[in-house]
Structures are given as C-alpha cells and as structure tokens.
C-alpha cells in the first residue's frame, strides 16, 4: 500500500507533497513478528520501500503518533521530515526479538543522530520519548495537538525546498574525534552483556559498517547480518517469548474467561517488618500511581522501613523524566506510613509481606478477616507456603490469593498469582489487573509447595549440590550455567539470596536442625538422597554475601565479589572422605543436563497436575523471575529445541545412575509426549487427559 501510494503521488502532478501517518493513533509497531518464517514479510522487503520514500521528488513528511517502532521508525527515517506527537515513543526494538533493524535503519539512524546515540538505541532496543527524539534530532518538531495537521503544515512549508540534504542515505556519518576507540569500547561492552545472545553483537557490526562503508554497501552488510540472525534459532526463541508473555494474560476458569475485577482506589500494604520485599512492593505500588499505606507493628520498624522506601523512591524518581512530580511520594494521599491497624477498614486490597512463617501469617489473616471491609482482597506474599492453609484462618477464603513477588520487587517483573481451592475468579482477575498496573507480568498458577518457579528450582539446585558431592566445585557448576546464558549460576545465586533462607525452610520441614529425628542418616531423608552440605555451611555461619562467606568468599560481609574459596575445596574433599564418596571428573554436559533437565522434568509434572495452564506460563516465569536467558526462550521451549527424546533418554540415564533421586525419574507426561512422536510444544496440552486447566 505504501509503495502504491507513493508511486501514485509521484506520478500525479497535482500532488506537491506527501504525508505518511498510521491509524488509530499509532504510526506503526513495525513488521509483523509472526512473519519470522517468511523473511520476505520482514525487513528485507521493507528496505527498498524506505529507499523509494527517500528518493521521492516530492517532500515526504511522517506524522508520528503513538509508537514508531522497528520497521515503523525505519519508514519514518526514509521520510524527509518527521513530526511527532509529544506523547509518541520511538525505537528500534528488533534486538529484543533476536534481530536487527532490517530496513536500512542501521545505516540511516547513525547518519541522523550520530553513532553513539544510534548504537545505544539499536543494541538495547530501548524506546525513547518524543522529547528525547527532538533533542537527538530524530524528529524535527513535536506537537501537543493534532499531529497530522502539523505534518501537513510542515509539508506545505517545505514544498520546493531542496531534498538532497534531507536524504539520510546521502549524508555522511557524523565523525567522532575518537571513533575507533569509541567503537572498540562499545563492542567490549556489548559482548560482555550478551552472554551468548547474538543479536546485540551483530547490531553493533551493522552500525560499525555504516562508519566504514558507503551507504549501499552498508545496506548489503545489514542484510547479511539480518539473515544470520534470522536463521540462528535465537530469533524464533525470542518471538516465542514475545507471544508467550502475551498469552499468559489470557487465563480461564471452568466457567470461562473472567475479566471482571474490583477497581481499587486505595491499597494497604500490610508488612510487619517492612523488609526488602515490603519496601520493594511499596515502591512498585507508588510507581504504579496506586495510593498506598504501609503499616508496621511499631514505630521503630516504621521509621526504618520508611527511610528505606524513601531512598528507593528518590532513586526511582531520578531515573524518570519529571520523576519527583510524577511519583509525588511526599504526598500523604499517595503514600502514608502508620502503625494504626484501624486504617485496614477502608482499603480495597491488602498485600501482606511478613516472614515466611505460617503461624504468623494465619494470625494476621485471621485479624484481616475480621477488620477489612467485605469486598477487600487479601493477598499474601509468600514464596512457597500453602495458600489454602492461610485462607483457612479467615472467613473469606474466596478473597484470599497468593501474590508471590520476586526480590527486589520494584525491579523484578514477575508476579506469580496463586489461587487457592476457594479463591474466586474475580479475585484472580483483580490480582492480574494489579500486576498489569504495576507493569509486572502476572502468571496465574495453582497452589502446591513452591508453586511453579521455586518448585522447578528445587531439583535444579539439588542437582547442583549433588554434583559438588560427586566431585565438582561451585565455580565449575556456575561457569557451565553462566556459559549457557544465566546471569548467575546456582551457587552465586544462593550466596546472593542467602543460604539461611533455605536453611530456615528445611528446619521448618524437619529436614535438618533440632526437629530432625535422632538417628537420621546424614545423606538420606524420607528414603531419598539428601545433601547436608548447605546445612553444614549454615551451621558454620556461611550464609553467603551477607556474612562474607558462603559457597564463595567475599571481600567483606555484604561484599559482592565472589572468589573461589580454598576452604570450600578442603571442606568438600573432607566431606567426601567422611562419607566415602568416590569422586570423579564431571564434564560440562552432565552438569548442564542434570541441572536443566531435572528442572524441565518438574515442569512436565506441573503441567500434568494442572498447576499451570501451559508451557508458555512456565517459560514466562523463568524468563521474568529466574534469569533464564531470553534468547533460549525458556526451559520448556529449550526442551522442545533439544528434542524431548533426548531429554528423556538423558533423564533415564541419570536416573539409573542415581536411583535414590526421584527428581531424575522422567515424568509420565514427558514419556507420553515422546511416545506420541515428540509432539511440538503448541500441542503438548492436548495430550493431557484433563482438557481445561485446574483453574
Ligand atoms: C523490518 C524491521 O527492521 C524489523 C524486522 C521489525 O520491524 S520487527 C518488529 C519490531 N517491532 C516490535 O518489536 C514491536 C513489538 N510490539 C511491542 O513492543 C508492543 O506490542 C507495543 C507496540 C509497544 C504495544 O504494547 P502494548 O502493551 O500496548 O500491547 P501488546 O499487548 O504488546 O500488543 C497488543 C497486541 O498486538 C500484538 N503485537 C504488537 N506488536 C506486534 C508485532 N510487531 N507483530 C505482531 N503482533 C504484534 C501483540 O502480540 C498483542 O496481541 P494480542 O496478545 O492482543 O493478541
């Protein structure tokens, strides 16, 4: 349509200028991501059209409203002028879906706004507001009122003016005094952050080509690099992740889709001991423009919590344009701190964020049930505790729901929403709306120990520790998972979170500590293999970063720099001698497979039990809450790319070698999917006897 329109305009002598706009208040979100399978519908076909726009003999003006992203912005770059609405956003987000701007954007953008700004936009995929676009020279004008009229006004003004200087392909790339040095430094930074993700590095190379070659040759280079990415498999994984994240918004209850939810206008965050989690949640709610009252059990904790929240909010305000005004967190109507439980009467929704202690949570929920108004929703922030048991302490279990935030709650996007046996659909819908308003990714999951994310994490960490017993080292195991693409491996993660968190939970379960029955075997619990290594470290005060020692050593308590610790190496070899464990060299493939396939296996069990609605839900949880490398699509997508027969065969092999480790035994659902011929991911759920999810 664009091509036809242009040709008609060019051929019609009565047409003096052309204005290109979008529809429904959106210029364009770029090429249809669904088009990955046929490159023709992606970038490649669009490039020549952009050149056609640019070579038009009549001035072409872009009227940018809403968004101009990807190919959409590349079309605007082919125009001679660009007018944007003040609220419009622009960007080249192709890198976030494993590609690069494939319609000559890597060659035009640097010519328009310079290499540093262009490189930043193209290698991060960030959206920029119209005000920044104006500063960069990306647009010529921004308007508050009707963008199209403004664009037509500009078009009339420039009729007859020479178009040469407005054609970006004819402009040289602005020079930098130290271009070489700048590019070298930028390339190192891109490489360091990529961890196996190809697109940022190739985006860099495309922009670098703009600084070294004439436009046409740069375009050829861009095309080559685009094809490499398209066939890399990473683009498919990211395309899957893009749509998976949108699929989780759709959930169903047996009675069908429920979109009703309570409009809440004030929320009380109940947090006894506004600790890290409570501070993050309050900060998140204020950022979402939701009125919050943070309640504490006494003034001492209140003041401590308030101070910490203010620090977080000041920091968040600095990151936003006009942040202080927008957040307005000194306004008591927006954010209050109190010790007065009576404020509970008026709120629509409470988020409790206290210690992971069932008795304490039940006591609080019993109180909430008696004080809160009838329609109020009672949410518990818990990472594993039984929602039904907490709900049983109230007279309104239909309004009790789990909201599992991930620390730091004002940064991590994932919110696991856990429904209990009696939770009502409107409670779920309200929690999902809260997630959306907090700009989080809400995923509805069923109630079981560890819910979904942590339940899949248990076997992953369990295998990592078993590998230490059998001969590996924390740094060796972490290296394998970090080479795979995780930001941090299981042991660095454990040191960061604190070994004492798990230790407290295991003591509560009677797996270690004073509640462990006398005479229990050191390395068996309930008939299966158990490693006391984390308990032994905790008994020696090695909690991780917070104590300066854990699986690694740190420069000081609270230090962040993990260094392999000779003490651990000695301790492990002594432990193996004590328990007469024959050590062996464990190769990287075994480390990776035992950690990842045991996690994936648990995912299949979760799907079979109806705890999650589909593999996309598990993948969205892992991509947004556990640092799974996005260019690998998520654990279940990764399993589909490895091939389920291989995952099954390897689990069978490891399970035979470790018969006392139930989590290595292949799940029945995995076996069924292999038996029907390695079903594609999209069809997995159709093989489950229970058609609709447990919801
Ligand atoms: C040549 C060129 O070089 C290259 C090769 C390219 O151009 S490659 C493509 C580059 N462009 C992108 O990467 C932009 C991707 N989209 C977004 O960032 C966001 O969508 C948004 C624009 C900021 C709006 O966010 P939103 O929160 O308001 O709504 P939504 O829920 O996200 O989206 C609303 C609905 O629109 C669907 N959708 C959005 N963008 C889409 C796209 N580009 N292709 C296909 N579907 C898309 C989305 O799946 C959802 O569908 P459903 O779930 O309702 O069925």
TrEMBL record:
Its EC number is 1.1.1.35, 4.2.1.17, 5.3.3.8. GO terms for cellular component: peroxisome. This is Peroxisomal bifunctional enzyme. PROSITE patterns: 3HCDH (PS00067), ENOYL_COA_HYDRATASE (PS00166). GO terms for molecular function: (3S)-3-hydroxyacyl-CoA dehydrogenase (NAD+) activity; delta(3)-delta(2)-enoyl-CoA isomerase activity; enoyl-CoA hydratase activity; NAD+ binding. It is found in: Peroxisome. It comes from Zosterops lateralis melanops. Transmembrane segments: none annotated. Residues 272-447 form the 3-hydroxyacyl-CoA dehydrogenase NAD binding domain. Its main location: other. GO terms for biological process: fatty acid beta-oxidation. Residues 450-554, 591-680 form the 3-hydroxyacyl-CoA dehydrogenase C-terminal domain. Residues 508-528 are annotated as: Disordered.
